[in-house]
């Protein structure tokens, strides 16, 4: 099993969700987060004063999948989230040792 964590632009969430549904991904956790990468935020003017917005709003997706779906899921996320502009985000893939479904006490792939 693998865990995919993707940081994407907020307006791309629906496209990514639809792309993942098309390949059979049934569940995910979505969080509203703030952060910055190479873009280092931006400056804005509010009531005549300039200030720096260091942390930009992003969406974080967390998905745990069986190994056979990981490459398809990563491809779907990248394709759907890409705008070609700075700040499109990142995808991280890490190993998951075990998963337990609390309701049924199932372990491993069955719990996912």
From TrEMBL:
<dbReference type="InterPro" id="IPR017918">
    <property type="entry name" value="N-reg_PII_CS"/>
</dbReference>
<dbReference type="GO" id="GO:0005524">
    <property type="term" value="F:ATP binding"/>
</dbReference>
<dbReference type="GO" id="GO:0005829">
    <property type="term" value="C:cytosol"/>
</dbReference>
<dbReference type="InterPro" id="IPR002332">
    <property type="entry name" value="N-reg_PII_urydylation_site"/>
</dbReference>
<dbReference type="GO" id="GO:0030234">
    <property type="term" value="F:enzyme regulator activity"/>
</dbReference>
<dbReference type="GO" id="GO:0006808">
    <property type="term" value="P:regulation of nitrogen utilization"/>
</dbReference>
<keyword id="KW-0547">Nucleotide-binding</keyword>
<keyword id="KW-0804">Transcription</keyword>
<protein>
    <submittedName>
        <fullName>Nitrogen regulatory protein P-II</fullName>
    </submittedName>
</protein>
<dbReference type="Pfam" id="PF00543">
    <property type="entry name" value="P-II"/>
</dbReference>
<dbReference type="InterPro" id="IPR002187">
    <property type="entry name" value="N-reg_PII"/>
</dbReference>
<dbReference type="InterPro" id="IPR015867">
    <property type="entry name" value="N-reg_PII/ATP_PRibTrfase_C"/>
</dbReference>
<keyword id="KW-0805">Transcription regulation</keyword>
<keyword id="KW-0597">Phosphoprotein</keyword>
<comment type="subunit">
    <text>Homotrimer.</text>
</comment>
<feature type="modified residue" description="O-UMP-tyrosine">
    <location>
        <position position="51"/>
    </location>
</feature>
<dbReference type="InterPro" id="IPR011322">
    <property type="entry name" value="N-reg_PII-like_a/b"/>
</dbReference>
<comment type="similarity">
    <text>Belongs to the P(II) protein family.</text>
</comment>
